[in-house]
Amino acid sequence: MVYFLSSYSLLSTSTLGLTASYFSSFSFPSNSKIRCMDAGGLDSDGREFNTAEDMWREQAGDPSKKTQWYRDGVSYWEGVKANMDGVLGGFANVNEPDISCSEDFLNILLSERFPPAADARRQPLVALDCGSGIGRVTKNLLIRYFNEVDLLEPVSHFLETARETLASGCQTNSDMHKAVNFYCVPLQDFTPDTARYDVIWIQWCIGHLTDEDFVSFFKSAKVGLKAGGFFVLKENIARSGFVLDNEDRSVTRSDLYFKELFSRCGLHVYKSKPFEIFNMVSYFPMTRRIRT
Fold it and tell me: Keywords assigned by UniProt (predicted)?
């Protein structure tokens, strides 16, 4: 898989099936003619769509269709057991390598954004876990690096399981690292408190949002970031175009599709780390350009 970086330069390493590519302040040129929404895609039954816009027009093109789109997505997950195997689609064994890859990526970002020299001046670190499910990422990763973690999840029995798990002593040094707020709110309806978060972590949930709500979410979520704060988005990616899942009502987007949406959000990708083993990628989009 090839990734084009800022200034159209390329840096890629590969080992043991894992590739890492790094983006530096990526943005589309102002006169860019790239239109990934003009690319075709498929649904999970093999049906073809000429463009993403055609697909969205059919699936969520008016208020009633859009309401049904989100209702069906939540209904799917309401029928899933609140355990590791359930939230990972029968692949509980993915948890350990997923957390390991995420931790490697997070350590790089934290060391660059919050260098050790600033530790004495640093306020408590706060993260938001979007699409938190049963608290898998919070419990196994975020709670160890952040003093406070808020969880955002629209499926009530997932969130209750997360609350019970995180309240039962599964926290590292619980006086200093704890889950604080549990929001049972859909991603597209959530507006964070101003300047609360150092990191907003979004994993395996943004595919449930329409393109319009994807852009709206990031634009509204920006207000929740502290100065120097950032988003991390970790998602499966399609090789090209998109794939619509008719069962859980989600869309897997291509790398270029994501970048076009980031551009619409006014975000710049600072780093990106693809994991070919899982056909997924972690993005680090920023609200402004930075020097490297």
Answer: Methyltransferase, S-adenosyl-L-methionine, Transferase
